[in-house]
C-alpha cells in the first residue's frame, strides 16, 4: 500500500515553509543549534523499491536509544532488515521540539509506508502531519490524554502503539519504604509534556490520600532545570520526576544539586536511575521496544492500526543506583536490595 500526500495550494505551502523557518529560528527545548535532522539516508538510489519505515524520536536520551535499538533488532527478527528488505530512515529531533515538524513533514511528503514515533511529542507531531500513513508509537505514557487514540482498546485512526504508563503511587510506595520519614516531596517536570502532566496528577492524588505535601518546581526549558532543583533544597525531603523527556535529557543538572544536598531523587524510568537518579519502580524498555516492533511488523503484514489495541508491558522492577545511595547517605534494606536491579555510575548513558 502506497500513501500519497494530498496536493496543497501554493499559498498554504509557502505559509507552512515560513512557519517551519520561524520555529527553527526560535528554538524552545534546549540548544537552539541542535539541527542535524536532515541526514537523507533513505529512500534513495537503488533502495527505492524497498518499503520505507521512518523512525522519529524527540531525543537520543538513554531510554529512547534503548527503545530504538530494540525496535530495529526486532524488526530484523520479523524479516524487516534495514538495507535488505526495508529501508529505515531514523531521524532524531535531538531534544529540540521544533525539529520534529520538518522530520515528520518529510516522512509524510515522501509517502513512507510506516512511521514509528518514539515518545509523546514525536507521535503527536507525526499524527499532525499525516492521518493516512500508519503510525506506531513507542513509550507514550498516556496515549488518550495525548489525543493519539480514541481509546486504548480501539484506537480508531491511523495510530496505535505501546504505552509505558507509569504509576506514581507505586514509585511513592517504594519511596516510603526507602525513606520512611519523607513528608514533603518536590516535583520537577516540564509543563509542555502531557506524559509528565498525567503522572503529576496521580502524584498529587496519592499525596492527598497519604498525608504528603507536594512542592512543584515546573520548568519550560531545560536551562531552568538546575534552578528548579535548587529551589527545592531546604524545602523537601525527597524529589520526584515523572517520565519527562526534557528532564531525562539533562539528568546531571538535577542530580548534582540533589546529591550535594543529600536529597533522594525518585524518578520514573530505569534509564533515569542509570543516569544518576536514586530509585524507581518501572518497566523494561527493551521489552517495550520489542513489542513496538512486533506491532509495526503486523501492520506492514496487513493489520490495521484502528482496531489494534495499545499494548503495555507487565515486566516491572525496582531499580536503584547504589552510587547515588552512597552519596546521599541512604542504606537500602536487605529485602529491597534482593529484589532490585542495581546500577552504578558506570551504567550512565550518553548525557
Ligand atoms: N514516556 C515518555 C513519553 O511519553 C517517553 C519516555 C520513554 C521517557 N522512556 C523515557 C521519558 C525515560 C523520560 C525517561 O514521551
Structure description:
This protein is α/β, with parallel strands linked by helices and 351 residues long. It has two domains: 52-164 and 286-312, Response regulator (Rossmann fold, 3-Layer(aba) Sandwich), CATH 3.40.50; 168-283 and 315-347, Response regulator (Rossmann fold). The protein has helices spanning 10-26, 62-77, 100-109, 120-129, 168-178, 194-210, 225-232, 245-249, 251-260, 270-274, 285-300, 322-327, 334-339; strands at 52-57, 87-92, 114-118, 135-138, 159-161, 184-190, 213-219, 238-240, 265-266, 279-283, 316-321, 341-343. It has a five-stranded parallel β-sheet with strand order 2-1-3-4-5, sandwiched between helices. It has a four-stranded parallel β-sheet with strand order 7-6-8-9, with helices on both faces. Helix 6 links the parallel strand 6 and strand 7 (213-219). It is elongated and about 60 Å long.
The named CATH superfamily of the largest domain? Response regulator
Class by alpha and beta content: alpha/beta
CATH architecture of the largest domain: 3-Layer(aba) Sandwich
Beta-strand percentage? Answer: 15-25%
Mean pLDDT: 89
Distance between the termini: 40 Å
Uncertain stretches of 5 or more adjacent residues: 1-46
Oligomer: single chain
**Counting H and I runs of at least 4 residues, what is the number of helices?**
13
Number of strands: 12
Specify Rg, calculated over alpha carbons: 21 Å
Give a short account of the largest sheet. Answer: 5 strands, parallel
What are the secondary-structure elements, in order, as H or E? Answer: HEHEHEHEEHEHEHEHHEHEHEHHE
Number of domains: 2
**Helical content band:** 25-40%
CATH class of the largest domain: Alpha Beta
Globally, the shape reads: elongated
Amino acid at each position: 500500500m502506497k500513501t500519497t500526500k494530498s496536493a496543497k495550494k501554493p499559498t498554504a505551502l509557502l505559509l507552512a515553509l515560513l512557519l517551519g523557518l520561524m520555529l527553527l529560528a526560535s528554538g524552545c527545548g534546549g540548544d537552539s543549534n541542535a539541527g542535524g535532522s536532515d541526514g537523507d539516508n533513505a529512500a534513495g538510489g537503488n533502495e527505492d523499491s524497498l518499503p520505507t519505515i521512518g523512525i522519529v524520536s524527540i531525543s537520543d536520551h538513554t531510554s529512547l536509544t534503548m527503545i530504538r535499538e530494540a525496535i530495529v533488532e526486532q524488526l530484523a527478527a520479523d524479516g524487516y532488515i534495514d538495507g535488505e528488505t526495508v529501508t529505515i530512515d531514523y531521524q532524531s529531533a535531538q531534544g529540540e521540539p521544533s525539529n520534529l515538524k520538518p522530520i515528520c513533514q518529510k516522512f509524510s511528503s515522501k509517502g513512507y509506508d510506516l512511521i514509528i514515533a518514539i515518545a509523546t511529542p514525536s507521535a503527536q507531531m507525526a499524527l499532525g502531519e499525516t492521518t493516512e500513513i500508519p503510525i506506531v508509537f513507542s513509550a507514550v505514557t498516556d496515549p488518550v490524554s495525548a489525543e493519539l487514540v480514541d481509546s486504548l482498546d480501539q484506537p480508531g485512526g491511523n495510530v496505535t502503539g505501546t504505552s509505558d504508563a507509569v504509576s506514581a503511587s507505586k514509585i511513592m510506595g517504594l519511596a516510603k519504604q526507602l525513606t520512611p520519614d519523607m513528608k514533603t516531596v518536590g516535583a520537577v517536570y516540564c509543563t509542555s509534556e502531557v506524559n509528565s502532566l498525567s503522572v503529576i496528577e496521580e502524584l498529587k492524588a496519592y499525596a492527598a490520600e497519604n498525608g504528603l505535601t507536594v512542592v512543584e518546581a515546573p520548568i519550560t526549558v531545560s536551562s531552568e532545570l538546575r534552578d528548579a532543583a535548587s529551589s527545592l533544597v531546604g524545602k523537601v525531603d525527597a524529589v520526584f520526576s515523572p517520565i519527562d523527556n526534557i528532564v531525562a535529557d539533562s539528568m546531571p543538572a538535577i542530580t548534582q544539586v540533589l546529591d550535594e544536598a543529600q536529597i533522594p531523587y525518585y524518578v520514573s524510568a530505569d534509564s533515569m536511575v542509570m543516569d544518576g537518579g536514586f530509585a524507581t519502580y518501572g518497566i523494561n524498555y527493551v521489552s517495550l521496544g520489542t513489542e513496538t516492533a512486533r506491532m509495526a511488523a503486523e501492520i506492514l503484514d496487513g493489520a490495521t492500526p484502528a482496531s489494534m489495541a495499545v499494548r503495555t508491558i507487565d515486566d516491572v522492577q525496582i531499580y536503584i543506583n547504589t552510587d547515588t545511595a552512597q552519596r546521599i547517605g541512604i542504606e537500602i534494606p536487605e529485602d529491597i536490595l534482593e529484589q532490585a536491579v542495581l546500577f552504578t555510575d558506570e551504567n550512565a548513558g550518553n548525557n
